[in-house]
Amino acid sequence: MEKRYDVVVIGGGQAGLAMGWHLARQGRDFLVLDASPRIGDAWRTRWDSLTLFTPARYSGLPGMAFPAEPDHLPRKDEVADYLEHYAHRFGLPVRSGEPVLALRRAPDGAGFVVETARARYEADQVVVATGPFRKPLVPSFAADLAPEVVQLHGSEYRSAAQLPPGGDVLVVGGGNSGVQIAAEVAAARRTWLSVGEKLVRIPERFLGRSVFWWLEKAGVMNVTVGSRLGRRASEREMLIGQSPELIARDLGVRLAGRAERASGGRIHTADGKTVEAAAVVWATGFRADFGFVELPVLDGRGRPVHVRGVTAEAGLYFLGLPWQHTRGSALIGWVGRDAAYLADRIAERARKHPSPSPVPTVIA
Predict the structure, then answer these.
(1) In angstroms, rounded to a whole number, what is the distance separating the alpha carbons of residues 141 and 312?
(2) Fold of 4-134+288-352
(3) Per-residue pLDDT tens for 240-257?
(4) Does domain 138-199+237-282 have CATH number 3.50.50.60?
């Protein structure tokens, strides 16, 4: 057992680092635990051509702007390097390569125990900042495809070079990732895109400015999930820039309906089409994976029950969830706002329930 910390933050991505910045400014004795071997690896392992939709002016964390021209769209490796530099610049105590196996109440009932493969930590308060996108989601009928059909989940896809040299490629999933991957593959191969539902599309730029400039100016990024508009918007993904219809028109991508079943080398879709594919990329998203949280704060689908990240378990918080409070809650340029809110809640609780150990001063 190591010493007891004021706060343990689980997850060292953008949400966890933003939380760390605020905790450091408060002088908290805290620790950030991250499963990846290196800070930023969650971005480094995405597909090679991935860029952010948010320009650099909206891609920074608290206290440090993204180091690029304001309208530059950062590539995924630039984001990874930025996060690593951010942690080093502010001296954030991140322990990489240490996935959390269990989070439970401490024996005294006043704090928490966080267990990893290496150690067991105690903390007065805990912030879970792993994000929800942890376990790849693939439909069960994928097992019915013939063994010779190459299958990759979107999290495993890096470039079209991974795909077999001949035959059609089917990308399943009409969200932003699926559309981008299909557009990239279509440059080299005949490509199909299976779309389950039509999503609202907004342009990446409008009248010479990033759409996020307009959304910010109009107050859309501040619309809360509890509002009427927020409740409606949070129920559906929004496409930015490209759409299935646009890549079909401009790049020759062939569209099909929702993938429903498979047999041999074929995928059968809801609109009656049959796609014979040499490879399938499942851009079908992820499911929540908070199984390590051994506390009654998850609903029947394994999702956190919270209000602005604050749970019914005193001292336990979540950060970085989509629509945790606003549309920007899971975006790098806005997650710092939610982190600031939780930092204030942490400070309030620390004043009411002070730690028995002295709090050192941390200079950020």
Answers:
(1) 38
(2) FAD/NAD(P)-binding domain (3.50.50)
(3) 999 999 999 999 999 999
(4) yes
